[in-house]
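ok trying this again, last paste got cut off
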Amino acid sequence: MSFVLDASVTLAWCFKDESDVRAAKALGHLSSTTGVVPSIWGLEVANALLVAERRGRLSAAEATDVVELLRELRIEIDPTPREIVFGPVLSLARAQKLSAYDSAYLELALREGLPLATLDVRLAEAAEKLGVDLFHG
């Protein structure tokens, strides 16, 4: 079964000090199923990689290796049209006291009826409150 993949899980694959069993399980599942992400996902991940490079946390070669891995994975990008961004995403962000970025993942999980893979505690709490299953692998 497909699942919504949050940037927090993706970034846990990139940094050894952020490794997590749930993130590893999500990565393993991408060999047989599809991760679905809102359009903001790529920008969030790319920005985190750039910041990590600038701070010396990752070398450019390591960041390139991560990008190559991400290109090979079964990840589908939802276009998240502006009607959704300025409608349900914004409403969820207000109601659940989330950032618009986090709300985009939650809205996608709700809309598609998919479990959410996240390491973000506040996002996980909001998902559970709204009846969204969390991905446990």
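PB: full thing came through this time. Residues 3-129 form a domain with the Rossmann fold fold (CATH 3.40.50.1010).
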